[in-house]
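Format notes (please read before filing issues)

Several people have asked whether sequences and structure tokens are stored in separate files. They are not. Every record keeps both together, in the order shown below: the sequence lines, then the token lines. Line labels are part of the format and must not be stripped during preprocessing.
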Amino acid sequence: MNKTAQEILTILEANGYEAYIVGGYVRDFLLGSTSTDIDICTNATMKEVLKWISGEVNEYHSLNLKRNELNIDITTFRMDGPYQNRRPMEISYTKELKEDVKRRDFTINTICMNKEGNIIDLLNGREDLQNKCIRVVGEINKKIKEDPLRILRAIRFATTLDFVIEPNLKEEIKKQNHLVSTLSTYRIKEEIAKILTSPNYKKGLKLLKELNLCEPLGLAFTSIVYTKDICGMWAQMTLTKNFPFTKSEKENIVKLREIKELGSINREVIYTYGLYLSLVAAEILGIESDSIYKIEKEMPVKEKKELDISFQEIVDTLKIKPSKQAGEIEKELIKEVLYGRILNDKKDLTNYLINNKTRWFH
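Then the structure lines:
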């Protein structure tokens, strides 16, 4: 068990409270993997917790602690009231652990652990973990309507853990699939990204199609080839919603789509888009990375500044003003050099400009 979490449990228990690790950390621990996100639930109120553990209570009425790479949330046992916009409109606190775990999404996320590392399993989550099954806690219809994000979380867990979705839950998702259209594009992007970065991503994509979720999510795709860079995955999808990509992500997705449309990668592509994006596009196009490295190594110039004549020298040689046409002439020079038709030498480049001036300027 994580020592920091164990210390927190020990402090709370020493002061007369119940305290347990619950959810993802315990699930992953039982599956033999580690997690840096740790949720602790306790019957102590936040006011009581703050007597013994310093920190700041957030908008979700939890105490959030950062300890090196760890993200720890401490929350009082609670019961959720009716939901609105994916959040309970009211929260009531309880002294019963079972009431707290009943509000959670899936049984595999309800398993608890005490400071000795003993497992407390009140809703048979361990059995579902062993059977590799994603099962909703409580009434399926109600849980999905309360928070449609649970639909995507079910698919994400089925993908990343390689579990099956319990048949009744699967049926209910099919009936309620339109509800995912109410989710924010931020949440959709976040969950789809977790599916796309999983080695088992094909299972997730298959489930999205099988459960008719693509249209309400704003996604369309046929087959997607795995790429190490997630922008390569997004570039293979048609997106009908305005997902909150960063400026860099947007640019890379557009560029990767352009290379994909070209269907091949040559010196000009590597020069224009750079080695990194060319390698990502090569994954999509099924081109061996070694061939891309070989092409790049043989290129006389890899970026504009390596051209042995400056833009100013081009306009001076041609006795013209800086213009769009001058920029096009510079591009022509680069292309000629790239393919070895001119040496990257100032004298040769200058002669090429002089000899072709009448072609450009009648």
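For reference, the curators noted about this record: The chain has 19 helices and 15 strands. The first strand starts at residue 19 and ends at 22.
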